[in-house]
């Protein structure tokens, strides 16, 4: 045996003697610390019995069943909400809803297929149409797979996010083209480019029209028939921009206009009809891509963010819009987004309170949905 091996054996023997010399109290402290380290490891990185690994091991059919079970546990079991969950698939209460997946932000990209399954299981209780904002973090791929697994007759209005970063913009557009080439395009109902990028001043109108033409040209080349357009505040829209689009979506927020909840539905529809008349060209379709009401958090001019005002808006808007079933509209938004708290201006705290479901994915307890098919 080499001198190195002898030294190693002596070191091991010394270590064993030190451990055996520990008092019972110190011994159990060491064991406890080791257990804590092991527990933290599995909590962070998962284990064979962690939920995600367990979920991944299931068949697609069992994933669907488990998602439905989780959905029932996520919401209150009050009679009104159970009736909402048990609503037949052809009777949905919202025409569509804006959906920004939690965790679908670069560079972390924490959004997964399992997250998509759980979210769409819940969203599908109120609508079968969603509008997304970007293509990053494989969110579209996860959503399309979730729709397939859950066997939903769901449609997506795909968003392509544009900013003042031309490299990122190209990545967004290239990713969208890849998705369109490799996916079931019958699920993708429309494409909205650059959500409010003009209002933010991130790009020019000329650049926006260039992106629109690029995507439309690609679709024509691949013989894919999907309308392409923009989603903007009305103040950022021009006739030249409208004429370059197949579809134009307007952000119409009565709360941000300071309209009282009792007048909000009528004001919103009048505003939309006026915009359609103003920009009519005989070929471009119009939609409301964002309309909603914060659940709580203060007020803005005459508009109040409270459960009762939220309920008033929801009831009146759904009843009002049901009179024009051919109009596309998307409720803003599916889930609360806590990160928007940074935009709050005290004493008002409504910036992160626009979700139909809160940040724990629970439905707003006071909302009474009007019976009506908005599909």
TrEMBL record:
Domain of life: Eukaryota
InterPro entries: Beta-glucan_modifiers, GH
One term of GO molecular function: glucan endo-1,3-beta-D-glucosidase activity
GO biological process: cell wall organization; polysaccharide catabolic process
E.C. number: 3.2.1.39
Sequence intervals crossing the membrane: 27-46
Compartments, record wording: Cell membrane
Catalysed reaction equations from the record: Hydrolysis of (1->3)-beta-D-glucosidic linkages in (1->3)-beta-D-glucans
Family to which the UniProt record says this protein belongs: Belongs to the glycosyl hydrolase 17 family.
Function: Glucanases play a role in cell expansion during growth, in cell-cell fusion during mating, and in spore release during sporulation. This enzyme may be involved in beta-glucan degradation. Active on laminarin and lichenan.
Name of protein: glucan endo-1,3-beta-D-glucosidase
Natural source organism: Metschnikowia bicuspidata var. bicuspidata NRRL YB-4993
């Amino acid at each position: 045996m080499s001198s190195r091996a002898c030294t190693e054996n002596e070191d091991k023997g010394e270590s064993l003697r030190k451990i055996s010399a520990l008092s019972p109290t110190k011994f159990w402290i060491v064991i406890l610390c080791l257990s804590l380290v092991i527990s933290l490891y599995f909590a962070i990185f998962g284990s064979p019995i962690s939920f995600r690994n367990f979920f991944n091991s299931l068949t697609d059919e069992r994933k669907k069943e488990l998602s439905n079970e989780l959905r029932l546990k996520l919401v209150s079991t009050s009679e009104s909400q159970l009736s909402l969950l048990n609503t037949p698939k052809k009777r949905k209460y919202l025409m569509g809803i804006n959906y920004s997946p939690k965790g679908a932000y670069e560079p972390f990209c924490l959004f997964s297929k399992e997250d998509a399954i759980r979210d769409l299981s819940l969203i599908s209780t109120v609508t079968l149409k969603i509008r997304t904002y970007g293509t990053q973090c494989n969110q579209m791929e996860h959503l399309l797979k979730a729709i397939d697994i859950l066997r939903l007759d769901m449609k997506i209005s795909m968003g392509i996010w544009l900013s003042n970063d031309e490299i990122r913009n190209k990545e967004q557009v290239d990713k969208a083209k890849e998705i369109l080439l490799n996916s079931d395009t019958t699920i993708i109902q429309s494409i909205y480019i650059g959500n409010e990028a003009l209002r933010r001043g991130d790009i020019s109108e000329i650049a926006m029209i260039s992106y629109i033409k690029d995507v439309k040209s690609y679709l024509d080349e691949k013989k894919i028939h999907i309308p392409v357009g923009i989603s903007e505040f009305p103040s950022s829209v021009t006739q030249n921009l409208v004429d370059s689009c197949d579809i134009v979506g307007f952000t119409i927020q009565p709360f941000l206009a300071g309209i009282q909840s009792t007048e909000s539905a009528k004001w919103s529809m009048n505003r939309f009809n006026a915009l359609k008349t103003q920009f009519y060209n005989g070929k471009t379709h119009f939609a409301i891509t964002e309309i909603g009401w914060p659940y709580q958090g203060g007020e803005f001019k005459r508009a109040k963010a409270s459960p009762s005002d939220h309920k008033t808006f929801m009831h009146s808007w759904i009843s009002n819009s049901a009179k024009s079933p051919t109009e596309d509209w998307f409720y803003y938004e599916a889930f609360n987004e806590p990160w928007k708290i940074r935009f709050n201006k005290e004493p008002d705290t409504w910036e992160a309170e626009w979700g139909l479901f809160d940040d724990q994915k629970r439905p707003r307890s006071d909302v009474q949905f009007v019976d009506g098919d908005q599909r």
